Amino acid sequence: MINTDILIVGAGPVGLFTVFEAGLLKMRCHLVDSLPIPGGQLAEIYPKKPIYDIPGYPTVLAGELVNNLMEQIKPFKPGFTLGERAEKIEKIDEKLYELTTNKGTKIQAPVIAIAAGLGCFEPRKPPIEDIDKFEEKGIDYIVKDPEKFRNKKLLIAGGGDSALDWTIELADIASEITLIHRRTSFRGALDSVDKVLALAKDKKVHLITQAQAIGVHGNGVLREVKIKSKELGEFSKEVDNFIPLFGLSPKLGPIAEWGLNINRSSISVNTEDYSTNIPGIYAIGDINDYPGKLKLILCGFHEGTLMVQSAFKYIYPDAKLSFKYTTVAGVNGFEE
Prior knowledge:
Elements (H helix, E strand, L loop, with lengths): L1 E2 L2 E4 L3 H12 L4 E5 L6 H5 L5 E2 L8 E2 H12 L5 E4 L3 E8 L2 E6 L4 E4 L1 E4 L5 E4 L29 E5 L3 H10 L5 E6 L8 H12 L4 E4 L1 E8 L3 E8 L3 E6 L2 E4 L3 E4 L10 E2 L2 E3 L12 E3 L4 E2 L7 H19 L10 H4 L7
Parallel strand pairs: 1-9, 2-3, 2-10, 3-6, 10-22, 12-13, 12-18, 13-14, 21-23
Antiparallel strand pairs: 4-5, 7-8, 8-9, 11-19, 15-16, 16-17, 20-21
Helix pairs in contact: 1-3, 1-6, 4-5
């Protein structure tokens, strides 16, 4: 049996930073994640992806951010149960929950913080016949290592942040790169849109809007993709790799059965402290939902910070909570 103060479901960046904020209040944390390593999607799927909206970092690789977060929480000695899915929770006392994983590990805590990102997820695939035959054989739904695509002819499809960011990142790595999008406008950050348009103007990227992939062909490995364009009609393009980036399809998995208020695969919370409808259970990061919600890492950091203040008052209602600045006390001043 594992006992802790705050049980964090999800070891992504928001869950990791919550350990730091809880540690400042001398509360112990234990994290559970179905992935085999800490860092969530950043470590497992996007370790080489550049992130541009972390304060103080003009750009930082996803894997580097995870490493920095792990170093930051090291003084507070969090526990980890990795490679196991949070399966069910049971209230065993007025202020005590027991969580059981799919492998039977039991963890008890008065507070549960759900920081599970998008929950269980899978990539959204374009409706193309035989696309599954070329998965990992020229078709990739995520980019783990940009070097895999060095000097390759690439076709990227999508109009969101991932499609734009990877087009920018791979423009100097691939021998040829084409970006297709079904619309004329993009959903990503305006700065990223401007960068892609500049690359297209300089002929470093071939940009085709109002176009989509409708077929894939090859002999064991992908050789060409058939494209339907409003301007160019139907044509086939020879490529080494096709990367459809249409986002991830989130599924809450077992969390959906915990009695929480769910809104379109997200957990509804009170923005005062990101508490759910169940006392002692909070939801922070991409997993939660409230008016004006933005699914950004930095917003999750803010949510985790306020959550641990509330969690302290919930666990120790009679204790006086004295807020301190780390610039004055230093991290060592908060350690056990």
